[in-house]
Amino acid sequence: MNQLNNLNFSGGPGALPESVLLKVQQSILEVPEVGLSVLGISHRSDWFAAVVAELEGNIRKLLGLPDNYHVLFLQGGATQQFSMIPMTLLRGKTTPADYLHTGYWSGKALAEAEREGPVRVIWSGESGGFKDLPGDDELAYSPDAPYLHYISNETVEGLQFHRVLGRDDVPRVCDMSSDFLSQPCTAERYSLIYAHAQKNIGPAGVTVVLVRDELLEDAPTDLPGFLDYRSHIKAHSIFNTPPVFAIYVVLLITRWLLDEIGGLTRMAEINRRKADLLYSQLDNSDGFYRGRAKTKDRSLMNVTFNLADTDTEKRFLAEAQAAGFSGLAGHRSTGGVRASLYNGLTLAAAEQLVGFMEDFRRKQTR
Amino acid sequence: MNQLNNLNFSGGPGALPESVLLKVQQSILEVPEVGLSVLGISHRSDWFAAVVAELEGNIRKLLGLPDNYHVLFLQGGATQQFSMIPMTLLRGKTTPADYLHTGYWSGKALAEAEREGPVRVIWSGESGGFKDLPGDDELAYSPDAPYLHYISNETVEGLQFHRVLGRDDVPRVCDMSSDFLSQPCTAERYSLIYAHAQKNIGPAGVTVVLVRDELLEDAPTDLPGFLDYRSHIKAHSIFNTPPVFAIYVVLLITRWLLDEIGGLTRMAEINRRKADLLYSQLDNSDGFYRGRAKTKDRSLMNVTFNLADTDTEKRFLAEAQAAGFSGLAGHRSTGGVRASLYNGLTLAAAEQLVGFMEDFRRKQTR
After folding, report:
1. Contact A78 B2 (CB under 8 A)
2. For residue B11, is it within any domain?
3. Which value does ipTM take for this structure?
4. Which of A75, A116, B169, B222 could form a disulfide with B75 if both were Cys (CB 3.0 to 4.6 A apart)?
5. What keywords does the record list, in alphabetical order (chains A, B) (predicted)?
6. Do A75 and B78 touch (CB under 8 A)?
7. Same domain for A108 and A158?
């Protein structure tokens, strides 16, 4: 219906599936079961309570999440979590939390944690330009850390952990903003998972937090209400007016994952095929397209690469745009090219991009 | 087009104008000037920078806001401001800030301020059941308070200040969440104005803050980035991913206010006429409809009233709903009936409600 939306490779907010966009569009004038615009329905209505309950249930079903986890829908993005987590788990502590510094976003998380309490960086990829991730032999976890924090997928650099890090006796806290619900996940191995919506599961404006009940037992009691996970748990995510629209779109995405895609195993297969297409094009380009990340740590979500020089990159981006592709410019901190392959991007779109890349390379190397 | 939306008297999120809803609907699949879904456009795009710039300009134009004010678009609602304000202006202070306790929401603001520093409640309507507001002779402002905080319109109780409070030598901080851009406002008399969008200017998920530059001069430097107004000022409201969709809808509302309504003086006339219709119905009902608020302090936004008993109120609400009206139940803390008359509600809708009330009263008193 809209070819530009289909070819949107933006790093985020990312493309959403067309069937969901059509339902969202309808809801702007009229949510079918209510008759009112989604923008004018009270967050205290029975309808919205049912939205939150169904969405929570869908996330539990998709992830097989045990009952001792709370599912919260908050505002403020991952950035607010960068602060809320150490406010809750690190304030007043003398033993440092373990943090990994694997790219742009984990650097931001680290800086906010350091304001709140002691932090130990157990690995940093900064000196290597964030081109790879540590192996298990490079990671010495503290057995007495209040928690371990890491980011499962670094959106800017295109790096992704393909395993669960940490020790079972130290709470794992993981920012899954850019790969949440893109693949199955053994959620019960984490004490807290957070993910803003605007990559794989909805628009900007809402953040999902899964938190194990026991993690909050010793949390400070003097936090502002909106920064206290327990306020939001007690109020079923309606502590104050929540972002009703964004939460409703996330519900539609989870319905799409369950009913149209058929679950996260199937979603992961599709995402894997999109990434394989792109990485094959890089690997078989005789160095024309140069992947940023080391092969073992490449992200299935963000394929980052460079061309011979910035002039060629500019020409590539301009021609891609003229051909209807958008969102391919790399993050402003790194430059280069980034093709983001979130849930909403179709396999057909990845095929089209690979076709374009093939043509561009042939023309340039003719 | 959708009669139910037209008759939505919800206390918030409130009804938005139909012409805006139609533009929003279009943008879900395609923002005209971009070609992409509004949900998938990067917040770092030129388009979004232009949205923020135009919206800021529109607010400046509507309010005649001087250049020494910053215009910010934040997340977390008024609730986040309840904390951010004392974190910024009260932490480490020994002189208390002046707070008014005029209803449900100012009580929430007060409780959060008390966590952060010393607070003096200069007037409370609690013992009187929040049925009126103080006159000038009841208010003894502290000349050395770091600031004065009050709420211009108490949504739950239907109380509104029809004047500016405070002293010119003490910064005024005002929560205008439920009457912002519903009427002209001498914004330059305040040091900080905040308003979440979901009453008069958009959907839930974004909060407008107008802050005078000098107010932040002595703010603490150790706040988390997302709770520091200066981070957001420096980043032009893109410190982290903002709620792109909600901000875009607020832009469309400001365009509607400027181009379709013709400015805030005209908007205030319409809002006044709607309120006059309702209050006349109350005043001329021989006590059938009993206004909650004292006449001098009645809100132009939220008309709150009771009927003879809760059974009659229930019947009123049920018949109103059957007739297509929605959102008329009073806040869960007070019960009764509340008709909210935000910008998006048309004069014709207020006329229809008054007609319904008239009929209901005749039937009951026949």
Report:
1. no
2. no
3. 0.97
4. A75
5. Amino-acid biosynthesis, Aminotransferase, Cytoplasm, Pyridoxal phosphate, Pyridoxine biosynthesis, Serine biosynthesis, Transferase
6. no
7. yes
